[in-house]
Automatic annotation (TrEMBL):
Family designation: Belongs to the cation transport ATPase (P-type) (TC 3.A.3) family. Type IB subfamily.
Higher taxonomy: Bacteria, Pseudomonadati, Bacteroidota, Flavobacteriia, Flavobacteriales
Sorted UniProt keywords: ATP-binding, Cell membrane, Membrane, Metal-binding, Nucleotide-binding, Translocase, Transmembrane, Transmembrane helix
Localization per Swiss-Prot or TrEMBL: Cell membrane; Membrane
A single cellular component GO annotation: plasma membrane
Renumbered residue ranges of the record's region Disordered: 1-28
Protein name: P-type Zn(2+) transporter
Organism: Chryseobacterium glaciei
Amino acid sequence: MEECCSTKPKKEHNHSHEGHDHDHSHDTGDQSTFQMFLPAIISFSLLLIGIVLDNYIKTSWFTGWVRLVWYLIAYIPVGLPVLKEAYESITKGDVFSEFFLMGIATVGAFAIGEYPEGVTVMLFYSVGEVFQAMAVTRAKSNIKSLLDQRPDEVTILKDGKPEIVKAEKVNIGEIIQLKSGEKLGLDGELLSEKASFNTSALTGESKPDTKIKGETVLAGMINLNTVSQVKVTTAYKDSKLSKILEMVQNATAQKAPTELFIRKFAKVYTPIVVFLAIGITLLPYFFVADYQFRDWLYRALVFLVISCPCALVISIPLGYFGGIGAGSRNGILFKGSNFLDVLANVQNVVMDKTGTMTEGVFKVQEVDFKTEFNKDEILKFVNALESKSSHPVATAIHDFVGEIDHSIQLENVEEIAGHGLKATINGKDLLGGNFKLLDKFNIKYDIQPENIVYTLIAIAYDKQFVGYLTIADSIKADAQLTINKLKALNVQTTMLSGDKTSVVKFVADQLGIQNAFGDLLPEDKVNKVKEIKARNQTVAFVGDGVNDAPVVALSDVGIAMGGLGSDATIETADVVIQDDMPSKIPMAINIGKQTKKIVWQNIILAFAVKAVVLVLGAGGLATMWEAVFADVGVALLAILNAVRIQKMKF
């Protein structure tokens, strides 16, 4: 089932499971449950009357051609669509589909006069198909609800007057007027002073998110209070929500190894079954004394019904898609079912520090300057210097000091990679960065930086050591819970960061992370992950998915935090956690484990029941009724089992 569960239009739903190139999805969007079951109800009613007339109210007229026509009419509502599918599959070169198996089994039953059994097999098969279609529809509902978050029309302001237009026609730079309760159709920048939004469609987070003027707001967010104005910054097709929807729609194209095996298995298995059925019919002629063609044909037909691989072909992709749906409902986007499998078996979670386990919002904790320097003046100089950098540290200093004094003349501003900033003020050099920067310019200092836990910004002015600022990043509220849950899942945790080793060790010790390494360059992180993989262990890397691209590429599965923050993140990562909560990491692993468990339960159930009934059928001990249970009954049980994952709490 390659895309039967995607949200693409019906015409794109034709899929192939290697030799089963047909549409299994039965688009049920506009059909009521009654309409879906109507053919089965008609068929069942006629079958029931026929069985009563056969066995309980014996009449002279219900014989011969009348009886045949009665059961044919009962067969047509459920049998005709299946025979049509079988014919279409054959014209496409796929002879051995499950439709073909059901077709020859039921037509064969009519040929040997077993009319009620022929109708019953097709009736139960059709009911199974309807239940499967309903299960797929339910599995789609989480993703369809995402589609519903993107309105087709928006209200824009033209010359100060509101005008309703199609969302895809809106140009970048136009202004949207968003009333209370309305959904935003495109990404943009908030022009109003303040507005609160419900972001649950994007992040799974029900708590309102308050935005202030100038902040980014995204398509799918719902305005909760006053009328707001938003300037469009992204085209409709490029919005974050569009990218997320496209990603989830394509998720089922990435197959898990189990799915790929079943598809290949079905391609080989089905023709073998057909030839075995022919053998069961004809070979006994040479070995059995009282050979009866009708009896052995009946056994072969029973064998065909039992061996239909529907339970596997339907329930396994449905199980994986249920896992993808459960993830999206909880704000976790899997780019394919193969990543569910990898996460189910992951042994190591390697994580970045800043923005993953910490908030990524730095704050100045302490200013320790030597008394001979004017503290306020130096801070103004440092604030002006740091304004030339986009680093989070610069933002922390700006938040601490306040407005930049533009009267300060900065000359020869230079950013020294991996060290910090240098500029000339009043003819004197000002340095701001790490202590390696001071070493580079031979500035002597009288402290031991490695003994101070926080991130340090060393300051030197006029070739003299001024002192330092300490900057810290707060640990996320659910970081501790995350590590505890990962330990409960027997997953090893490692923290890799470019931040100071003492800071990284301090955060790791607070959270109970087993291994922590600081002062790492991107290539150092790659080497650390290679060391873990050299032990033949699986690795999930959690980071921003952009700066850590080499590590993400090397790891077995890359998980991006804050998927709404960066287009590149959505492109790079295999799994995107939309709301920045690290506790979603063990949740994603748990969803993978539960999905895999359900898939294997279905595989074992289907093979065990079919193996037993196949042997009984070949030996003439099982009738069509047992065959129906082995095929449709097991398929229904497998579907119901697969649907369970969508109701689980993680």
